[in-house]
Amino acid sequence: MPTMPTIDFILPKHYITSHSSLASKMFPQFVSRMSRNLPHVMTVRGFRMGRYLLAGHSKWANIRHIKAAKDGQKSQLFARFARQIRLAILEGKSPNPAMNTLLRQTVDVALKKQMPMASIQTAIKRASGQGTDFRRHVLEVKVVQNRVYVILVLYTDNPTQAKMNLTTVLRKVGGTFADLGHLFTETGIIVATAEEKTPEKLLEMATEHAILVGAEDVELMDEKEGLLNFTCSPAEIQRVRKELAELNYEIESAEHVYIPHTSIELNEAEKAAYANFRDRLKMIDCIDEIFDNIDNPSS
């Protein structure tokens, strides 16, 4: 394959902010290299920006597939938003969306996913009178003859009971608790759209804004819809989300995800065993997310 030509250009200093890790690495040199021959990827100061026309080419595709299957069940989706509303009220210290940015953003996403306003108001009302022990917890397990690595994200005020319930499930399916953090990459995923729809202009604008807000990567996931995928440190999700919104991006979702370093394929018997495990997890209603190392999961 012939080498693509490149051209140097200068990023203005107003793109460089104190919270940008990219800037700190490159300062004081503001010279960047951008590929002008663009069908797929261009790099700006080591900043990777991709246009992914095929879902299978994206590191996000597997997680998006998992989430799409799960989100298809509205009752589970609305219960998940109710938990997120509760957490937003605790973290933002207010049940009033006008005074609590995180809560307002969570409600906006819930509405986009067609959660009824009455259900949202009920969730806010219930959360307003509850205790402050409600937290995010992560449990890691191995199942299906220790081949499938699973990270479970829970939101609960009783993690001990949740772990006991999971222990019961693992005993029935032959799974075990394990330390799997080193086998996954944690990252923040912010999905957004912008008014600009021309792919090349959108990519260029999104890259400038990603650098400005301190994001790590940006991908154009859907050219027709102008759907962008920004990635950042999990600790920076809410700040990056807020600053993107201030730049007039429409935020579709903002989540803390786990991407496996390697994936595996299951045979039919293993798929059935894993489906049985997933079915049994339904008894633990505080489970919010399930991440695994399966390639092209069917559930």
From TrEMBL:
Residues 58-130 form the TACO1/YebC-like N-terminal domain. It comes from Lutzomyia longipalpis (Sand fly). One of its GO terms (biological process) is regulation of translation. The keyword Coiled coil applies. It is found in: Mitochondrion. Keywords: Activator, Coiled coil, Mitochondrion, Translation regulation. Acts as a translational activator of mitochondrially-encoded cytochrome c oxidase 1. Pfam families: TACO1_YebC_N, Transcrip_reg. The keyword Amino-acid biosynthesis does not apply. Residues 145-294 form the TACO1/YebC-like second and third domain. One of its GO terms (cellular component) is mitochondrion. This is Translational activator of cytochrome c oxidase 1. Belongs to the TACO1 family. Its main location: mitochondrion.
